Amino acid sequence: MRKYLSKWFIILIFGVAINYSLLAQEHLDNHPKPATDFTVKVNKAVYRQLDFADSTDFVEARRGFIATLDSGIIRNEGGKPMVNLHDYDFEKGESPVSVNPALWREAKLNNLNGLFKVVDGLYQIRSFDIATMSFIETSTGYIVVDPLTNAVAAKAGFDLVKKYVGDKPVLAIITTHSHGDHYGGIEGIVNAEEIKSGKVKYIVPSGFYHEVISENVLLGNAMMRRAGYQFGASLPHNEFGTVDAGLGKGFLGGGSSSLLEPNTIITKTGERLTIDGLDIIFQLTPGTEAPAELDFFVPKYKAFCSAENATHTLHNVLTPRGAKVRDAKAWAYFLDEAIDLFGDKTEVVFPSHHWPIFGHERSIKFLEDQRDLYKYIHDQTVHLANKGFNMDEIAETIKLPDELGKQWYNQGFYGTVQHNSKAVYQFYLGWWDGNPANYNKLPEVEAAKHYVDYMGGEKAVITKARESYKKGEYRWVAEVLKHVVFANPGNYVARNLQADAFEQIAYQSESANWRNLYLVGAQELRETNKPTAEISGRNRSAKFLQKLTVEAIFDYISISIDGVKASGKDLSVRFIFPDEAKNLLVTLKNGVLHYKENKPDVLADFTLTISKQKFIEGLADRARFREIVLGNDVKREGNIFKLRELFENVEKFDPNWNIVLPR
User: Fold this and answer.
1) pTM for the whole thing?
2) Cβ 521 vs Cβ 515: under 8 Å
3) How far is Cα 531 from Cα 654, in angstroms, rounded to an integer?
4) How confident is the model at residue 79 (pLDDT cuts 50, 70, 90)?
5) Beta strands, E only, 466-605
6) Cα–Cα distance between 118 and 123 in angstroms, integer?
């Protein structure tokens, strides 16, 4: 009997060892893979599709170079490195097989960094950040256009300008639109008091502040998590990781960002401002690349700033990080209007990303081709929708005509034709394609379990997926294995194989967005989430919140309310901010928070008189909130437990929620 028991014990131990070995093997397979033969073939074909002998972009991108940072390192006031311009020094020579050759070319162009003279009186700082910052000379100072994402990069750029062009004061700042890479670094150029006092004009398009709050505060947590995918925040800088951001170099190492209230609003096209003797004529372009955006023309320099409406790439009609859908028809219209308004006088176009377009004829052709790029995608999407094609079918069908599709500045380094056609469809028709089967679908996890069961179980799906992978059918492998992963996130064989498929799609992608998001997806499947809290946290920091209006802060608090938890609550708290001359009655009822300034006589359950700064400190550091509220410099009246009850329903968002794995 003992003999048989020993035999079965040995078999059991052997079986456990095999299973442990197989489990270990599943995890051992979680490393990046080289480009497959299919990917190599796809990428080599790109050389036959586009004119790589055309060096015009390199000539124009290098034109007017003055200097860059000797060290290549941008540090904060404490000496900590924030931006390393050497991160992309590996981008030399021909494209490696793991990078689409067209994207590699764009990446090399975007890696040309430093201070450049566009024309006499107009200078640019390029590739210190994803955006381009411009300096326009007036008689005695500068007008700064789009002061980047973070203050340290903006300051480093301004220091170069002062050193090589002239140490003169900033008289005005123009932020062309409501995206953070065009306003966040403003305090590296001026201080908040200079804007508040009006000493420095801060010029923005109508609706700017509202749209910034809408996009970056209300949806900041969701957008920043998705932006981590779009910009490859957790990826290494190498031929198997991130090589570019499409619009420029995405340095996400840190640095402080600010939002200051503007003091000069452009409300109509044709509006003219004269700043220190220099005329600027503005064009409002709402609903284009941003909900609030403007272009402008500088007659003295015959220079047209196309902001982000015309750049050296096809842009996004709907950004992968998530935002309001843009109007491709309006986008094309405003580019056409710009040609009519300023075209006959334009000798140079300088976008807020990339490098300028030089010469009258080339400038007009650039604007016309970009105009027709968005108009073609718009018109053909609507055309096919009216023929009954759904969103996915349209994305597979639309192809640009050669006269548009062969232009380097129309390539999909950032946006893509497929993604943008879906955005146009969504803009007009919403997410539903009209098929009832797609109207009230099961949630992903529940649907995934049914799919896997119908397909014969996890092993059967994986076996078939491996065969599809060997055939180079990476899109299908990614799609089918999503169901296995969501049905059983502990299946590392499925996770690793899906990651392998993501990786090959990334290697083939012309779009930096696509490359980055697929590579981050692969990374998180293999390693679980890489924290992106540093990026997400920037919008929730005390310094950032301090620059918001009191109303904007309570807008953010209102969307942080857990409606289920707050159900049945009925309370009111008055917040008085003496330093802001604000008196807000805040109510929580029906799971909804409201605030009103026009109810000064309504009796509240509790009244808190506190400085805005102290209130912000408490919001940013909830562990100290009680200590701050009970401080000697804070006044309290009424039932203080109502304040606690209010904030017990304010939920803190997790900046690292799952995307490629079930939540």
Assistant:
1) 0.91
2) no
3) 10
4) confident
5) 570-577, 582-589, 592-596
6) 5
